[in-house]
Amino acid sequence: MMKLRQLLILALIPLALGACRRRAPAVVPGTDTEVTDVSARERARADSIAAFEAAERERQARLRSGEMARAREVLTDIVYFEYDSFELGMDAQDRLREKAEILRANLGIRLRIEGHADERGSTEYNLALGQRRAEAVRTFLGGYGIGADRLATISYGKERPLVEGSGEAAWARNRRAEFAVTAGEISIAPPEGR
Q1: Which of 26, 104, 130, 153 could pair with 115 in a Cys bridge, judged by C-beta atoms 3.0 to 4.6 Å apart?
Q2: 158 within a domain of the structure (yes/no)
Q3: Are 126 and 81 in contact (CB under 8 A)?
Q4: For residue 115, what pLDDT band results from cuts at 50, 70 and 90?
Q5: Which residues, including other chains, have CB under 8 Å from residue 148's CB and lie 6 or more apart?
Q6: Three-class SS of residue 123?
Q7: How many domains, in total, are found in the chain?
């Protein structure tokens, strides 16, 4: 019985050792390739989304830059007056309303309003007329909520003509108010449709 027991133990040892051995994972044909393909597709999709988002940010930045340039153009746009007048015409009022919208959206901006006149009349008279033109503009903008502390005025009278020469065409271009941004940066563009 002892021998039988020894034989049985000897027979069971290889079976026990075989059971303890690690099995190699079962290989399913095509699985590694499919996992790699899925990962590559996910990476490609993520790269595509990232590229699209970067392009969109760049497009938005260019658009914003264009809007800021347009706002600066509106702020420095010249307003013209009739002969011997400081009354604001309809075109001038429209331009000033656009300026007011930008100024309301950008509270840090300050403007200098420069009043000018054509060459006709005395130096003193034209300095006074230029000042009245600058003040008329400041008053108009004040009516749209722009504080006088943000709007400086100065008159150059006939001393700084935009166009040299005599004649109605030159005189009409010289009867004006010009604008200079003296403080602040445009950070908010004008409303759509302007």
Answers
A1: 130
A2: yes
A3: no
A4: very high
A5: 138, 142
A6: helix
A7: 1
Q: Strands across the sheet with 110-116, in order? A: 79-80, 176-183, 110-116, 151-157
Give me 107's structure tokens.
Answer: 């509270």
Residue 5 is assigned to a structural domain of this protein: no
> What is the domain extent for residue 130?
64-183
- Rounded to the nearest 5 percent, the helix, strand and coil shares of the chain are 55, 10, 30
**39 found inside a domain:** no
**Is 164 domain-assigned?**
yes
pTM: 0.66
What does DSSP say about strands 176-183 and 151-157: parallel, antiparallel, or unpaired? unpaired
The structure tokens listed for 35 are: 């996992």
